[in-house]
Specification:
Two copies of one chain form a homodimer. By secondary structure, chain A is an alpha/beta fold. Helices cover about 25% and strands about 30% of the residues of chain A. Chain A is globular and about 65 Å long.
């Protein structure tokens, strides 16, 4: 039996394009001892991938040229040479952009227990995105009922969960999204109290109107001009979750912006970088909480599914072109 | 009996100069009921005063034109019409730049209990500066033994205490100061493990050499070019205490600099603004701890005493000219 894989063939400067990848097909060999063979059902396409293949230091080890693109995936165990896993189990983990993955058990992040819900959710609202939203908001944002939580990329995979969780926790949720359609999605699908199209005129004025008492928690996925408009609106004691910097496709040269130190001092505010992989101990409890909210209809999600491994090479660049509507996934098995 | 006071007569753009103040003399009237009359011994000259008289929003209410310049001071109760205070007691509080202050008890910050030590310490290492150093370091810096604590304005009133407290807590202390003389003072008087003259060549290289394992805690009193060299050296999980922005004499127009968001994210670092007045509940215990360290010879200090109320109007501008050597104070009574 053959398996296809997407391999990194050159290192991009900035966002990876289709030509930085190649699809390689190979015969599946004998599964090595101590390994599990996973037949991938869905592959993840995540903004963080830009960092994993960037040409400069980052918070993860780089993907090497010639190796399969690193990715979270969800699939079914098709063969096992370890006692912990049996064929037929649904697992999610670091299985890469490929049809079949032969991996050590340490690459399995977790067994999917929520098999009453679609498997793809393991890569979205019950996976890295949902857990990022919940744990980032809980540990750094520390929102209190009645406070205003502002979210950039508010219609995105992480942002939409942040906004809804803020509402569940009794906060006022305000979103910033690119385009009037996404802003409408924020209000109508995800239940934000207000949503602002940052491409429209008067972002600063719109923020002032939507956050009359200031911003208690800013969940920042963008940096850049959006954040520059938000910082002056921070309330005293505000908390800023630095979760992503989607406004910039490259930090070489390093971009300048209005200095944050005075905002931090005058508002006695706190800003902290958040990388979900530092919080492995909170993963299971967080997924269980998120799954309960999904079942109760309190936590909605939006998926943008591309079909077949052929869709992988251009999928990441497409994210940065803003073409997706919801969490981008690649479906491998029907 | 007459008393002289320093009054704010015009609002500066940037740092207040001597001409923004005037000295007014008036006959001391009858002490009003419910008030205490304090004969000031020492007046404080503090970098934070720039903010109190700035022409834009700040974290304190502005000093009004025509009123006595706000200042901490230490002095002796000369007359009292409240039961809590008796003549002869030594008190510190918001007594302003004047020889005699008639104040309500709420203006008294504390009774000076450490009367075995010089009274002037209530305005320095046992006052706002020492408490800022200790509480800022404890609550935001959270240094652990063996970590590297880096301090800007390392020879200053706050910075010199931060460096020494870091050593007392078992950390490695590295200072940044302006000029080779101040750097030497850091090493020889205050016991820093290393001190860097930021005016010398190669600040980034000097920081790399002095902090080979990165910076775990950065106690930032400056912002600006000094901080720009520090942020790339932050260790993973680093904490930045934003305590002052002495590099800038004005934030209008707002200065730009290298964006912090990516540093915060990649290093999972935290930056938080610190204003000591938010921590009134920690004041007494902090002063007691600092006084014990002073008595034990573990916490040294340096004072820069100017004589007489005539020295007040130019004293703040002088701080920003960098002319002081130690905590600047005005001595009123011998």
């Amino acid at each position: 039996m053959k398996s296809r894989a997407v391999v990194l063939v050159s290192r991009p400067h900035g966002v990876a394009q289709a030509e930085n990848f190649a699809i390689r097909e190979a015969e599946l060999g004998v599964l090595p001892e101590g390994h599990v063979r996973v037949r991938n059902a869905f592959l993840s396409v995540d903004p963080a991938m830009r960092g994993w293949i960037a040409d400069r230091g980052n918070y993860s080890a780089p993907v090497e040229i010639g190796s399969v693109m690193r990715s979270l995936a969800v699939g079914e165990v098709s063969e096992s040479k370890v006692p912990e896993f049996r064929p037929g189990e649904i697992v999610t983990g670091w299985f890469g952009w490929q049809e079949f993955a032969d991996v050590a058990p340490s690459s399995v992040v977790r067994r999917v227990k929520e098999t009453d819900l679609p498997y793809s959710l393991a890569l979205g609202v019950l996976g890295i995105n949902g857990v990022t939203a919940l744990v980032g908001l809980e540990t750094i944002g520390e929102p209190r009922p009645g406070e205003t939580v502002l979210v950039s990329t508010a219609a995105g995979a992480v942002g939409s969960a942040v906004g809804q969780i803020a509402k569940i926790l009794g906060c006022r949720a305000v979103g910033i999204a690119g385009g009037s359609e996404k802003a409408r999605t924020c209000r109508e699908l995800f239940g934000y109290d207000a949503a602002i199209d940052y491409r429209g005129p008067g972002l600063a004025e719109a923020l002032a109107a939507a956050c009359p008492d200031g911003v208690n928690v800013y969940f920042d996925n963008t940096s850049g001009a959006i954040s520059d408009a938000v910082w002056p609106r921070l309330a005293v004691g505000g908390r800023v979750v630095i979760c992503g910097t989607a406004s910039f496709s490259s930090w070489d040269p390093w971009p300048n912006g209005p200095r944050l130190e005075r905002h931090l001092l005058v508002k006695r505010a706190r800003a902290q970088g958040f990388v979900v992989f530092d919080y492995a101990d909170r993963w299971e409890a967080s997924v269980a909480k998120l799954a309960d909210w999904v079942r109760a209809g309190k936590l909605r999600y939006s998926e943008d599914v591309l079909d077949g491994i052929e869709a992988c090479p251009d999928a990441l660049a497409g994210l940065y072109r803003g073409e997706n509507r919801g969490t981008r996934l690649i479906r491998i098995t029907k």
